[in-house]
Every structure is written in structure tokens, then in C-alpha cells.
What we know:
Blueprint: H1 3-6, E1 9-11, H2 20-29, E2 34-41, H3 42-46, E3 63-68, H4 72-84, E4 89-94, H5 99-103, H6 114-127, E5 131-137, H7 145-158, E6 163-167, H8 178-181, H9 189-198, E7 203-207, H10 213-221, E8 226-229, H11 231-235, H12 237-242, H13 244-249, H14 258-264, H15 266-274, H16 280-283, H17 296-306, H18 314-321
Parallel strand pairs: 1-2, 1-8, 2-3, 3-4, 4-5, 5-6, 6-7, 7-8
Amino acid sequence: MRITQHARLSVAPMMDWTDRHCRYFHRLMSGQALLYTEMVTAPALVRGGALHLLDHAPEDHPVALQLGGSDPYELAQAARIGQAAGYDEINLNCGCPSDRVQSGTFGAVLMKHPQTVVDCVRAMQDAVDIEVTVKCRIGVDDQDAETVLPEFLARLGAVGCSRIIIHARKAWLQGLSPKENRDIPPLDYDLIRRMRALFPHLHLSVNGGITDLDQVQGFLDDGLDGVMVGRAAYHQPWDILGAADARVWGQPNDTKTPEDVARAMFPYIEAHLSAGGRLNQITRHMMGLFAGRPGARRWRQILSEGASRDGAGPELLERALTHIGSAKAA
């Protein structure tokens, strides 16, 4: 299946969340959804040699590496490193509004510098054989999104960047925290739909405020090429990913229940512990597996209290599973 088909539903890159353990866990629920790394800065790879940030399991695929940066030469080097590490796609972050990102002149602030984005994309395209994509906002600060976004998309399309994920909110670089930037600026899905009509040759995905598969299907029915889900996929992973293969791609899901998913993690957990890791590095991503089910609170409590203790292993999850009630009782 071509990666554009996998991109019909993707899990957003989320700092401190979508690490390699999270992605392995998510892949057990959906064999089709496109997964993304946390944002990795180009300087960390090129100057810092932090190649451990690229660790991933063979089961992760299809998986994309999101890069942050604004120097075309450095991003090209980082993209080359990412391709060599086995990633299926390189994505440029033009949407993150954090102060740390702004100080490096990348992320959402790049919406103010479209020529820089074009130069970076072109440099990465020249450096790798895999697809280079962009994740952006509809605009920043006082920009007129109706003007800025189509100009931005047109410039990207002109250099052959044909797949773009658009977070349907502006980013406010001053006055709002990164958390507030995920909630306070109003969503403008209609603008994304207009871009779909204006740029039929581009593969456009919508991101922002999407909480369930009904919304996902609605956007696909509206003609959007893809939908990227963020926090909902993390906090209620089974609700989003457990039925995704059947609903989005018409394929059966081999994993039948969230309990099956939890137990399917046991070999991965054992390998991680044998390599010197700790249980809570994995289970912190599994807290929402039973969201909405009887016993979900006790599941979270047992993992929260026990997973950081010395010697904790899969038996802790097995104990937590005894408190999960039937989904029919919810």
C-alpha cells in the first residue's frame, strides 16, 4: 500500500508522547495508520549526533520522521540521516508554537518565512529518495489565513511538495502557551475544505480538534485526503485506532480487544526490561487503553503507582487487567 493511502489516518507527532514505545503500542491497534516520531531537531542529529532519537522497531512502519529546523543544508543532512535510519517519510515542522522552537527560528514561525520553507523542502528533496512533507498551521498571529495559507500551499506545490498536513488553527507566537495554542485559537475546518477544492493536485490532511472516528470519516467523505489525530489517539487509543483499519481502510483488525493489545505488549516489555529499561517508560503511554471502560481508573492507578518500582514487569499489567470490566457494562 502506498504511503499516501496510509496517510488517510495518521497519528500526530507529539513531543514527549510519540516516542518509539508509544508507536509500537499504537501499531498493535492499527496496522495501517501512518505514525510519526516526536519532532527531532536537525541540529540534534547533525551537530549533536543524537542518533538514538531515531531508534524505532521494524513493526513501526509505515513511520515518518518529523524534523525541526530552518537551515536548508542542515535539514538536508538530517533528512539523509533519517532515510538511512529507515524512515518512510521526512516531515518538516512548520506548526509548533513553543518558545523553544521559535528561538531556533523554526516551527510555526516559518509560516512568516515561506521562501525559507521552500528552500528547506527543496534541499531535503534533493538529499533523499523518500517523500518530503510539511505540517503547518493556517497562519500565525495577525496574518490573514485566507491569503497566507493558499500562497503557502501554492509555493510548496510549485517545488513538488505534494502532501501537506494543516492544523486548522492559527498559532499565536506571543501571548499563548503551546497548550493554549492547541485549544484557544478557533478551528477553521471550512478553510481547509476550500483549500482542498483550490488545490486538487495536492494531498491535504486536516489536523486539530478531531476526537473520534466519526469525525475522521466525515472529513474523508468531504474529500479531504487524510486526517491526522493527536491527543485523542493518545488518550483514547483504542477508540481511535482499534476500529481504524476496518472503518478507514475496510480491512479486518487482527487484534480483537484492548486486553489483547495489553498482553501483546508483554514480549516487548520483557525485551525492554532485559536491555535495562524501566516499565513506566512504556506503560505511561498505555494509561488510556481502557478509556470509558469499567475499571479504567483502577488500571491507571495500578500502573501509575507500580510501574516505576524496581523489578516491575508484565505481572503488574496482568494484575491491573483483573480490574477491567466488560465493555458491555459501560
